[in-house]
Design goal:
The protein is α+β, with helices and mostly antiparallel strands. It is about 55% helix and about 10% strand.
């Protein structure tokens, strides 16, 4: 069986949003499936010395322009939330809780959360905002609310983030194809070629 493509992302990553809108179609063209892995860049930054992109002088101004331009190129709606960057802990917990029950619904939730944040410009930084998006998909809001405070769900996320860091994940999005990492939504063209050629 052909290995899945690993897709690592933070829900607070605009470039992750752009990649999330493309990764499934790209994988399908090559007969692959995608394994979605939300992470917390806040846990990664101490390892890398990084910081939120828009907080970096000069580079942040360029990044804002590039995000908007890249979305226009892909014909995707784009609007940064007023609160940005935002905490994505609740979104990640919701994803992993749902993934353990229904992976397809978890992916649908991930896409909906991303669109809420970067197509609608509304941060999904609270339990209430995440539950509202989940309810729009006819998911059980009461069960999700309870799950977000469940120690087992919290531990599930912690282990997922630790595992990603151990594997060398340092940014969002980061795509791994047969052990080969590609960082950034702008590397999806290389991912496509890598899958087509079997590497180079």
């Amino acid at each position: 069986m052909t290995a899945k493509i690993d897709f690592y992302f933070d829900f607070s990553s605009p470039y992750g949003y752009l990649a999330a809108e493309q990764i499934e179609d790209l994988a399908a063209r090559h007969g692959r499936e995608v394994s979605w892995h939300p992470i917390l860049l806040g846990a990664v930054f101490p390892q890398t010395g990084g910081q939120p992109l828009l907080n970096v002088p000069l580079k942040g101004d360029y990044a804002r322009r590039d995000m908007e331009r890249s979305a226009r190129l892909l014909d995707l709606p784009f609007q940064l939330p007023a609160t940005f960057p935002f905490m994505s802990v609740a979104a990640c917990r919701a994803f992993y809780w749902l993934q353990d029950q229904d992976p397809a619904k978890a992916v649908a939730l991930a896409k909906a959360l991303y669109r809420e944040a970067f197509a609608q410009g509304r941060a999904v930084d609270s339990a209430e905002s995440v539950v509202a998006v989940a309810r729009s998909l006819n998911l059980d809001g009461e069960k999700l609310t309870a799950a977000l405070n469940d120690p087992a769900v919290k531990e599930r996320l912690r282990k997922a983030v630790d595992a990603a860091i151990t594997k060398g994940v340092f940014g969002s999005p980061l795509i791994v194809v047969d052990g080969e990492p590609f960082w950034g939504h702008d590397r999806l063209a290389q991912v496509d070629l890598w899958l087509q050629r079997g590497g180079w």
